[in-house]
Design goal:
Structural class: alpha/beta
Order of helices and strands: EEHHHEEEHEHHEH
Number of strands: 7
CATH class: Alpha Beta
Shape: globular
Radius of gyration: 15 Å
Mean pLDDT: 94
C-alpha cells in the first residue's frame, strides 16, 4: 500500500467552546465523507450523544455537530497534514506530520476550560507539536488523554469508554442541549 499525503478536515469550533476534543488525523472513511468520525463503528457519536443528551441515530451529521457545539464542545485534530498508509494512527509516517494551528485557535477561545485528546496518538502529537507552542495561560489548561473511540480500540466497550469520557461533563453546562 502506498503512502498518501492527506489533508485533514476544518475545525468545528465556535466561540463558546469550553472543551476542545482533538483527534490525531481523520481516518479514510472520515476524509472520504468530509465528516468527523464517519466510520460506522467509531464510538465518538454515541459518546457525544450520551454527554450532550441527544440520539445520534436520529439526527444527521450537520445537526450532530450543531448540538455538540451548542453543548460547548469543539472538534478538530492535532495533525492537519501527514503521510499515511491506510487509516490507522500507527501508519502515520513519523516526521511527515504538519500540526494544525492549534495555539492560535486556543488563544482565541476565552471560555476554553479543557482539552481532550481522543486516543494516545492524539495525546502524543499534542504534547510533541502543540504544547511547547502554547502561550502561558493556555499551557495551564487541563489536557486529558482519553481512550480512543476508534474501532481499532476494540478492547474498550462503549460503557467503559463513557466512564472515562464522562470527565468532560465537569466543564460542560449542567443543562446540556439535547436534540
Amino acid at each position: 500500500m502506498t503512502e498518501t499525503l492527506l489533508q485533514g478536515l476544518p475545525a468545528q469550533v465556535n466561540a463558546d467552546c469550553r472543551v476542545l476534543v482533538l483527534g490525531s488525523m481523520p481516518g479514510a472513511a472520515s476524509l472520504h465523507a468530509a465528516r468527523y468520525y464517519a466510520h460506522p463503528r467509531n464510538r465518538f457519536w454515541p459518546l457525544m450523544g450520551a454527554l450532550c443528551r441527544f440520539d445520534p441515530q436520529l439526527v444527521d451529521y450537520p445537526r450532530r455537530m450543531e448540538l455538540v457545539q451548542r453543548a460547548g464542545i469543539g472538534v478538530w485534530d492535532v495533525i492537519g497534514q501527514c503521510r499515511r498508509r491506510g487509516s490507522l494512527d500507527a501508519a502515520i509516517v513519523r516526521g511527515s506530520e504538519v500540526p494544525n494551528p492549534l495555539p492560535a485557535l486556543i488563544a482565541g477561545l476565552p471560555q476554553l476550560a479543557a482539552i481532550a485528546c481522543n486516543g494516545a496518538t492524539a495525546a502524543q502529537a499534542f504534547k510533541r507539536h502543540v504544547q511547547p507552542a502554547l502561550p502561558a495561560g493556555a499551557a495551564a489548561l487541563p489536557v486529558l488523554a482519553l481512550p480512543s473511540t476508534s474501532p481499532a480500540n476494540a478492547g474498550w466497550s462503549l460503557p467503559r469508554l463513557l466512564g472515562e469520557w464522562q470527565q468532560l461533563s465537569q466543564w460542560l453546562p449542567m443543562e446540556r442541549i439535547g436534540g
